[in-house]
Design brief:
Length: about 400
């Protein structure tokens, strides 16, 4: 390579000042960039605002820590707002060394996505005073001081943590003003104690959305542990997702999730675990969540019938989307196709999702479609059952024609 001349620096700087977002393949750091960096004191990309260290396939997992550190440290500048290190190889444990310099090198950093997230590297987190969004994978080695480092992020609004495990005997943390601005929290692949511990530390935050994915439970009834930690968010929480990971031979009793009925501000609720919610429980659920707009219930121990749908219509007046596992069609539940039954009142439901519907002849689908429209008159579609959705669309067309005929008779 020819020695770099002053004209080369000038030409490079012309373009470098325009670069705001950088996507960097960590498998190699271009030699030219390294030489330019070593030959000058000024930042390489002085206007850089976002860095994405990405990976291509399995090769990335064999990267050495030194290469990752070199790739990232070339571009740490005061203007940086976002650093995405989700491509960091799990084998590059010493890569955490240069992250300690982040508060000094990038004082305005607002977003950090970090993998693998070694617990020993979290001490510096509390100094990132401008951080608004944080995602860390690999939290299984957490200790109390790591929780405290995260909780000092007063401006943090969005937090995503993977592998959040805590010992079953770990004591409850003291209630403080930790996570004072936290609004969006995602916890994936954690145990009940780890999730509960974090929720207790964030108990004074204005949490609006909570997503608990693949919750690891030794017993399904232990789901009551994190649920009991949700009470402080009764007035602020509007979106809640809970899914349990792994095959389970047990069924969650309604008593184990009764704490959810105290979250009266919920507008979206997704429950993805085996449960024994019965027809008689729907009324109490509707009273507990009067403004609920989106409801997903999966892995229910018993399939729903039309009577269940009618109960949802009667007790969930704000529901826009209903997603349930399966629908068993019982002729005895359905009104006659020739009956002149009309909807007693309007209902705002727009989308009905039925993951499985027992197959029946077309006349029975037509009866079911008419019955569904009688309780959900504003329904737009049924997914993914094409036969039932087609029947609903046919009846909606019949209703439209009848309305036109009625208007014509009134004008005459």
């Amino acid at each position: 390579m020819q020695p770099l001349a002053p004209a080369d620096f000038k030409r490079f700087d012309t373009y470098a000042r325009r670069v705001q977002t950088l996507y960097l393949d960590m498998r190699e750091v271009p030699l030219g960039l390294s030489l330019i960096t070593q030959s000058r004191d000024a930042p390489l990309l002085p206007s850089l605002q976002a860095i994405h260290l990405y990976k291509k396939g399995w090769i990335t997992w064999n990267l050495c820590a030194e290469r990752v550190r070199a790739a990232a440290s070339l571009f740490l500048v005061p203007t940086l707002r976002s650093l995405d290190m989700s491509g960091t190889p799990r084998t590059a444990l010493p890569v955490t060394d240069f992250l300690v310099d982040l508060p000094r090198e990038c004082p305005h950093l607002e977003e950090l996505i970090y993998e693998p997230g070694i617990a020993s590297s979290l001490a510096f987190m509390g100094q990132l005073s401008q951080l608004r969004s944080l995602e860390i994978c690999g939290m299984c080695g957490l200790v109390d001081t790591d929780f405290e480092s995260l909780s000092r992020l007063r401006g943090l609004r969005s937090l995503t943590l993977y592998d959040l495990f805590a010992p079953q005997s770990s004591p409850s943390p003291p209630v403080t003003s930790s996570f004072s601005s936290l609004q969006y929290l995602t916890i994936a692949n954690g145990n009940a104690q780890g999730v509960s511990r974090l929720l207790q530390m964030a108990s004074t935050s204005p949490l609006q959305s909570l997503d608990i994915k693949w919750l690891k439970l030794s017993r399904l009834k232990d789901i009551s542990i994190p649920i009991s930690a949700l009470l402080p968010f009764a007035e602020s929480l509007v979106t809640l997702f809970i899914s349990v990971g792994g095959a389970q031979n047990e069924i969650v009793r309604v008593a184990d999730i009764r704490g959810l009925t105290k979250l009266h501000s919920l507008q979206t609720l997704y429950l993805f675990f085996p449960s024994n919610i019965q027809l008689g429980d729907i009324e109490a659920m509707g009273q507990a969540w009067p403004v609920l707009r989106n409801l997903l219930l999966r892995d229910m121990s018993m399939p729903c019938s039309f009577r269940h749908l009618a109960a949802f219509a009667a007790h969930f007046p704000s529901l826009r989307e209903l997603d349930i596992d399966s629908l068993v069609i019982d002729d005895g539940d359905l009104p006659s196709l020739n009956s002149d039954g009309r909807a007693a009142r309007s209902h705002p439901l727009l989308e009905l999702k039925l993951q499985f519907v027992t197959w029946v002849e077309r006349p029975v689908f037509d009866r079911l479609a008419k019955a569904i429209l009688s309780i959900f008159p504003g329904l737009l579609r049924v997914d993914p059952c094409m036969e039932l959705n087609s029947a609903v669309q046919r009846w909606k067309e019949v209703q439209r024609i009848r309305l036109l005929m009625k208007k014509g008779q009134q004008k005459a």
